[in-house]
Amino acid sequence: MLARLTAARRLPRVLGVRFANTRAEGSVAQSREFSKKEKAHEDQFIREHERQQIKKLRERSMLRKLKWMLLRRNTRNWQKRQKRREKWLPHW
């Protein structure tokens, strides 16, 4: 009876070692390929995200430039009107 118990206890240990050895041989190559693919995917995502950010910045820059140009034009028009008024208004 004692022999049966020891044999049953040894069997899972041997199978566990065999399973770990076989898996380790192929898993290294697979993990390297997976990490390369994952890195390529992440790089692609980062590039696309950066493109979107640059596009937004360009749009903001153009809007700011247009606003600045409008303000400048309005200021110049206001200054011209002020000069015209000064000509016709008497100085007190």
TrEMBL record:
Compartments where located: Mitochondrion
Recorded GO MF terms: ATPase inhibitor activity
Chief site of localization: mitochondrion
Cross-referenced InterPro entries: ATPase_inhibitor_mt
Gene3D superfamilies membership: Single helix bin
Superkingdom per UniProt: Eukaryota
Keywords: Mitochondrion
Cellular compartments per GO CC: mitochondrion
Presence of keyword Mitochondrion: yes
Record-stated family: Belongs to the ATPase inhibitor family.
Functional note: Inhibits the enzyme activity of ATPase.
Protein name in UniProt: ATPase inhibitor, mitochondrial
